[in-house]
């Protein structure tokens, strides 16, 4: 299969074999074996395709449907037209929220006194990040 010269000269088509293909082949083979074992000693007769008695004649279908005379004509009563008679609802304005979140919060800095200058720098960066995300 890896040799292109050999594959070009032969007419054999080799399918890819993987776990799924092998499982399908094995399951189909097992099903056939089980059916053969279960059907041992049982004669299955083919049903006759022809009957010894002739078929009854076909029913004739009329060209037009039959006319039926009802005792009274069918009348459908439509409901009254009430277009434009509905009461309009008043739209109440929504109450504004008690607390509004600012759209662009200004970066806030809290002055804490850290022990060293590196801690001070890290704390200032952390507070700026939280303020930008709106956490503070």
Automatic annotation (TrEMBL):
Protein name per the record: Uncharacterized protein
UniProt source species: Ciona intestinalis (Transparent sea squirt)
